[in-house]
Design brief:
The chain is of the alpha/beta class. The chain contains 13 helices and twelve strands. It has helices spanning about 30-35, 65-75, 90-95, 130-145, 165-175, 190-205, 220-235, 270-275, 280-300, 300-310, 325-335, 340-350, 360, and strands spanning about 5, 10-15, 35-40, 45-50, 50-55, 80-85, 115-120, 150-155, 180-185, 210-215, 240, 315-320. The strands form three sheets. It has an eight-stranded parallel beta barrel, surrounded by six helices. A two-stranded antiparallel ribbon has the order 1-2. Strand 7, helix 4 and strand 8 form a beta-alpha-beta unit.
Length: about 375
């Protein structure tokens, strides 16, 4: 790949690597905003390959002031993608980025991408799911909390077996035609469900989804590496992935048990604590120790290596970061270590869980 030198005298590859890492001050690197953007699937929307998510931390683990600070640093570092949802922190993650702080990005609305998700709303039967009623009312509620006229992408946050696919696609088409959203996508949908939505859209001249949000990290690979690339080539659906550090597991914070201030110790995250303490969790932690040694050898952190590994996958448009302080954010935004075929092969050998495509199985 072509090389270019920026003002830190780092060598930047067009494919996504920088030899100096710049972990502390990535926002000073002048080429960041140029080469760290990709098309969202085969749509024309350009998104930063790293986005800022608000899954757990915003509105619950961190203060509003810290949330604003993180968003400002991310934006100034070249990040233009901010992911929210109607349910995150009981709806507060939407309010955090609104006029509560008069977040300065709102003055430049055309320069960044805001997403939201619809499914879990209130307690009433009609306040959840993907009925036409809840899609429209849920999105209006999100826009009110965000104090925005529109979001760029609205995601259907898991499929709803109680709502016909045609109703879902028609409702998504309606909110786009009404100017409430620019695009729509899916989250936690199967490849078959996404294909059905696409077929319905084509049959009735409606708008198909452009993106699937999926969990993706060292220990969760099949969907993003086998199923989604096929959809990308067939119908242009891209992948926006989340949890690149496996809820913090990959950072090594759980190597000696569950710290009191960690996510696994939070109310409602008993499942994560059980996962960490399980036999499979212990096996994963042993592999993570080896990955830390590999990262040290490459001159980067384990988090930077894990994020670079996610970004190397075909069809991945953006990886969403979940952070709770500026040090974590700056580390994760640090330009990524060399992800050459040799490093990828070494990680695959260490993990021992590389999924095989249908073509490879036939061969």
């Amino acid at each position: 790949s072509a090389l270019v030198t920026h003002k830190h005298q780092c060598t930047v590859r067009w494919d996504l690597t920088c030899d100096c890492l710049c972990p502390k001050y990535p926002h000073n690197c002048s080429f960041l905003s140029f080469f760290l953007h990709r098309n969202l699937g085969k749509s024309g929307l350009r998104v930063s390959c790293l986005g800022l998510g608000t899954w757990v931390t915003f509105g619950s683990q961190i203060s509003d002031e810290m949330a604003e600070n993180l968003m400002t640093i991310a934006y100034e570092s070249g990040v233009n993608l901010f992911d929210t949802a109607e349910v995150y922190a009981s709806g507060r993650s939407g309010a955090t980025s609104s006029s509560k702080h008069q977040f300065k990005l709102l003055l430049l609305r055309s320069s960044f991408v805001i997403t939201t998700k619809i499914y879990w709303g209130g307690q009433a039967e009609t306040e959840r799911g993907l009925s036409r009623k809840h899609i429209i009312e849920g999105l209006r509620g999100s826009l009110s909390r965000l104090q925005l006229e529109y979001v760029d992408i609205v995601f259907a946050n898991r499929n709803d077996v109680n709502s016909p696919m045609e109703e879902i696609v028609r409702a998504m088409t309606f909110v786009i035609n009404q100017g409430m959203a620019m695009y729509w996508g899916t989250s936690r949908w199967s490849a078959m469900e996404i294909m059905e939505a696409y077929s319905v859209a084509r049959q009735f001249n409606l708008i198909p989804p452009v993106c699937e949000q999926a969990e993706y990290h060292y220990f969760q690979r099949d969907k993003v590496e086998v199923q989604l690339p096929e959809l990308y080539h067939k119908i242009g659906v891209g992948a926006m992935t989340w949890s690149p550090l496996a809820c913090g597991l990959i950072t090594g914070k759980y190597s000696d048990g569950v710290p009191e201030c960690s996510r696994a110790a939070m109310k409602g995250y008993q499942w994560l604590k059980e996962r960490v303490n399980s036999e499979e969790g212990r096996r994963q932690l042993a592999k993570i120790k080896e990955l830390h040694l590999l990262a040290d050898r490459l001159g980067c952190t384990a988090a930077q290596l894990a994020i670079a590994w996610c970004l190397r996958s075909e069809g991945v448009s953006s990886v969403l970061l979940g952070v709770s302080n500026t040090d974590q954010l700056l580390e994760n935004l640090g330009i990524l270590s060399q992800m050459n075929p040799q490093t990828i092969a070494e990680i695959d050998a260490l993990l021992g869980n590389k999924p095989h495509s249908k073509k490879e199985l036939r061969a």
